[in-house]
Each structure stands twice: as C-alpha cells, then as structure tokens.
Amino acid sequence: MNPHIETLQIALGFTGKDVDGKRGPKTNAAILGAADAGRLLVIVDDARPEPKPEGGALSAKSEEKLKGVDPALVAIVREAATQVPFAVIEGLRTKERQNQLLKQGATKTLNSYHLTGHAVDLWPVDENGKNLPSDAAFKRGSAEAKAADKALWDGLRKIAQVMKLVAADRGVSLTWGGDWATFPDAPHFQIKR
Predict the structure, then answer these.
(1) Which of 18, 105, 159, 177 could be a cystine partner for 185, CB 3.0 to 4.6 Å?
(2) How far is CA 118 from CA 35, 52, 77, 126, in A?
C-alpha cells in the first residue's frame, strides 16, 4: 500500500474499501477526471515513495523483448503491466529490421527510437494472456474486423493511459504513437533519447 496514493484517493472522494493505496484503473480514472475538470493541483515533493518491485507481471517472452531497451522505459513498462495486461511485441531493433519494416510500409522512418532502445511496441491481451487479434485477421470491412479494431483500440487506449500516468509519476516524458495525427502507430511508446 502506498500512503501517497491512499491520501490522493481520499482527496478524490474515495471511501471504505476503495481507499486501498493502490493506483489501479478506478484511481487512474478519478485522477484524469479531476485533471480534466481542473480540480487537480500538483505539488512537487522530493520525498518520493520507494519504487515498487520490478517484474512479475510480464510474460518471459515480453521480458525477453525488453533486452537492450533503456532502463527508464523498462521500469515504466513493468510498472504499467501490474495495472493493465499487455504483451511487449517489440523493443530494440536492428537496422536490418527497420529497413524491412520500411519496405513493408509498417514505418515511415529509418531513424526509429527502436534503434536506440528508446521505444517499445505493446499489444493488449485477453484474460488468458493471448494477444488480441487485429482487424487484419478478418475479412476487410466485416463486422468481425470492426469489432476487433474497436477492441484493439480500446485496449491500446487503456495501456496508453496507464503508461502515461506511470511515466509522469516517474518524471519521464513519454510519447504514445496513437496520439500522432499523421501515421498513428498505436502500439508504439517512446521516451526521449
């Protein structure tokens, strides 16, 4: 239990069992709601709580994909994974892999943050830990494709919300590719080099 989160929950109007000192989906939603309504005041305090233990929420395959990724980004990913389920589908890339993705039209640059370990691609998973299907797995324009696309974007938005909150809590500037107006890349998260 984090006493700072407990204090925040009480200030946000939580009572009873809802005051658990954990930053989960309900607390995150309340924080964003208060911020959107202009009711959130941030006071910088140098006495930050001890960081949570790392690891445990990601699969071994996802952990493997974090090798070579900047430690600050790895810490954000691991903490976010304790709050919302996802898989790491790509971390550090080689120049050859980047060239391959450019030829396939999956990227528009040869200067990706993946090349320096400052980016990861994350994917929502179902309750069994399996990656959600993309709309490409279904007939184009079908009801199944539309449902898959909606589920995927809903999952990615939840991941982005948590990733942004964790990064902000750690004082790290994080960019979500789903916010990009041109060529959105919703699975993509990067920090400054």
Answers:
(1) 177
(2) 28, 22, 12, 26
